[in-house]
Specification:
Elements: H1 2-26, H2 31-42, E1 47-58, E2 62-73, E3 78-87, E4 90-99, E5 102-108, E6 113-117, H3 126-135, E7 141-145, E8 148-155, H4 160-167, H5 177-189, E9 194-201, E10 208-218, E11 229-239, H6 251-256, H7 260-265, H8 286-290, E12 295-297, E13 302-304, E14 313-316, E15 323-327, E16 331-336, E17 340-345, E18 351-356, E19 363-366, E20 371-376, E21 379-383, E22 394-398, E23 404-408, E24 413-417, E25 420-424, E26 430-435, E27 445-457, E28 460-465, E29 472-476, E30 483-484, E31 490-496, E32 499-504, E33 510-515, E34 521-525, E35 529-534, E36 537-543, E37 549-555, E38 562-563
Antiparallel strand pairs: 1-2, 1-11, 2-3, 3-4, 4-5, 5-6, 7-8, 8-9, 9-10, 10-11, 12-13, 13-14, 14-15, 16-17, 17-18, 18-19, 20-21, 21-22, 22-23, 24-25, 25-26, 26-27, 27-28, 28-29, 29-30, 31-32, 32-33, 33-34, 35-36, 36-37, 37-38
Length: 566
């Protein structure tokens, strides 16, 4: 009898278990119910921590990994973010704060200097992202496992761009503030070629715990038809809900923060006709830069550095006869202003220095490997080698406070003229024109001229044509009024007033003079290169023996040609 009772007990227990399982199955939540319940739970979250790991691949940059960590206060939205990026053996670190739609990047830790970068895009919090998924719920694939509820989508359809921008994590900052601004704009204007996305909601707490986003898009900033595809995968996790302290942005961050406009224009950012370069006083002329910047002048004295052959900066009297050694540094790219001599020191990794014009008060300005240093008013321009991607970005650095901005991500040759950068990306490539005072400008203007060398003088671009055997042309900055100037091939030139001087390859590398009004030319010397125009005199080099170069000088009309005293 007792045996039969035991049997009946276990049979009943099995039936009850089966009925319970059937009841749970019948109560399984639908996707909309899961999402709505999670949204309600997430509305009660006031603070949380986040982490993001990314891996990206781009044709020029190669592969980069980044780790982001931080915490956020939901309302009002405040976030503190730290990012570490790695490419090959190089590491970069970034710190930022977000206050609603404003992003503050740390520019100089020692000076506690921050820059306010606020692209015209709104931040989207976690609940708003989930509400967007709810709006497109029919497009998402819903699954359930022991780890949680999963909402995923793979698409290249019309709704893809809306989902991409709406689900993109607001705390994904980049290493450089200007690049961060640029990438925000690209995301709005470009759109991905595909999008894979998944979000996970915890089954017990209904907190949103993680997300994954994979996409690809074209990073090309010009309309030249080329493609520069970036593919990237982001892995986000969210934790410590209501367990982290509220994010309080230090007052010094807000008080010390400056905008790009304030950095560029001081306190005159809002003035309608304000210019970045008030007087555009250059440390050397465009033509002298193109020919090596061996000579520079303050309008009275001449300063000279023959760094290819010897160390030392020399000062020459205006008569060009007597010289005085003022420093024994190996100086490259001489620039002379009213009070200073600027140069790159080859012996110190081409770092940028300045000294008084008597050689005293030597001061280091930048620790970058500076190539083609140019000084315009209080700003220094130079390109350098980026070890992360082998690019040569162009930087501008303020000579007084050291503020440093990257304005072009990669170029080969450049010049600066009236708040504009004219550059080419590769040898014999097209020209691009970028307004420096429009730091949010996404697309530089392309001028459809393939060139070898180029300078800008009095509103004209002078260039050696890459498609017409190096003949010299000129064209207005707006791309109009193109004129052919020479019938012969050039290999270096310079311009002053209405006269062009050039190395005539077709005539055995002779030094020639060309009248820009009549286009009549005349030979000045049997040989001549590295043409500099200083204080109404011409300085140029030519071989004095098989391997040795010597410097020569003459008046601009070709008279009084003689060997220079060095």
């Amino acid at each position: 009898m007792r045996f039969i009772q035991v049997i009946i007990f276990y049979v009943l227990l099995g039936v009850i278990g089966t009925l319970t399982a059937c009841q749970l199955e019948s109560e399984q939540l639908a996707p909309e119910e899961v999402l709505k319940h999670s949204i309600e739970v997430m509305r009660e979250v006031h603070t949380y921590a986040f982490e993001l790991d990314s891996i990206s691949s781009e044709s020029d940059m190669g592969t980069m990994t980044a780790h982001i960590s931080g915490s956020s206060t939901v309302s009002p939205l405040h976030a503190h973010i730290k990012r570490t990026s790695r490419v090959a053996a190089s590491t970069m670190k970034t710190e930022a704060y977000i206050i609603e739609d404003e992003t503050y990047f740390l520019m100089d830790d020692d000076k506690d200097l921050w820059i306010n970068v606020s692209p015209e895009v709104g931040t989207v919090d976690l609940v708003e992202e989930m509400e967007l998924i709810l709006e497109y719920i029919d497009l998402f694939h819903f699954t359930e496992d022991k780890n949680g509820y999963r909402f995923s989508i793979s698409t290249d359809e019309e709704e893809m761009n809306t989902l991409w921008t709406g689900l993109f994590p607001f705390f994904y900052v980049f290493d450089d503030p200007l690049f961060h601004t640029m990438m925000q704009v690209i995301r709005l204007e470009s759109g991905p070629s595909y999008l894979n996305y998944e979000m996970v909601i915890d089954k017990e707490s209904f907190y949103r715990t993680s997300a994954m986003m994979e996409y690809a898009y074209d990073m090309n900033l010009t309309d030249d038809g080329s493609e520069n595809k970036l593919t990237e995968t982001l892995y986000m996790t969210y934790h410590s809900m209501n367990e982290v302290d509220e994010v309080i942005v230090p007052k010094t961050v807000i008080e010390n923060a400056r905008t790009y406009g304030e950095i560029l224009f001081g306190n005159h950012e809002a003035e309608e006709e304000q210019k970045l370069f008030t007087h555009e006083k250059k440390g050397n002329s465009d033509g002298n830069h193109m020919n090596g910047s061996y000579f520079a002048t303050d309008g009275v004295n001449i300063y000279y550095s023959n760094w290819m052959q010897e160390s030392g900066i020399y000062k020459l009297a205006d008569d060009g006869i007597e010289k005085e050694l003022i420093s024994d540094v190996l100086a490259v790219d001489l620039n002379v202003t009213e009070d200073w001599i600027y140069y790159s020191d080859e012996k110190d990794g081409f770092n940028v220095y300045r000294m008084s014009k008597d050689g005293s008060d030597v001061e280091k300005i930048s620790s970058d490997y500076a190539i083609d240093l140019r000084v315009v008013d209080e700003w220094l321009f130079y390109k350098t080698n980026n070890p992360l991607n082998n690019n040569q970005p162009l930087y501008m650095v303020h000579s007084k406070d050291g503020v440093k901005l990257q304005i072009v991500d990669n170029l080969f040759r450049y010049t600066v003229y009236e708040d504009q950068v004219l550059y080419q990306k590769e040898p014999q490539g097209n020209l691009y024109l970028l307004e420096i005072d429009e730091m949010r400008q996404t697309y530089p203007q392309m001028l459809d001229y393939s060139v070898r060398r180029f300078i800008v003088e009095a509103g004209w671009i002078y260039f050696e044509s890459a498609v017409d055997d190096g003949k010299i042309y000129r064209v207005r900055l707006d791309g109009t009024q193109v004129e052919q100037l020479t019938r012969d091939e050039s290999q270096g030139f310079n311009v002053v007033d209405e006269t062009l001087y050039f190395t005539n390859v077709s005539e055995g590398h002779s030094l020639y003079q060309l009248d820009l009004n009549t286009l009549e030319s005349a030979k000045l010397d049997e040989r001549g290169s590295h043409i500099h125009i200083i204080n109404d005199r011409l300085y140029y080099s030519k071989h004095i023996s098989g391997l040795e170069l010597g410097w020569f000088q003459m008046n601009l009309d070709g008279s009084k040609a003689e060997r220079a005293p060095f």
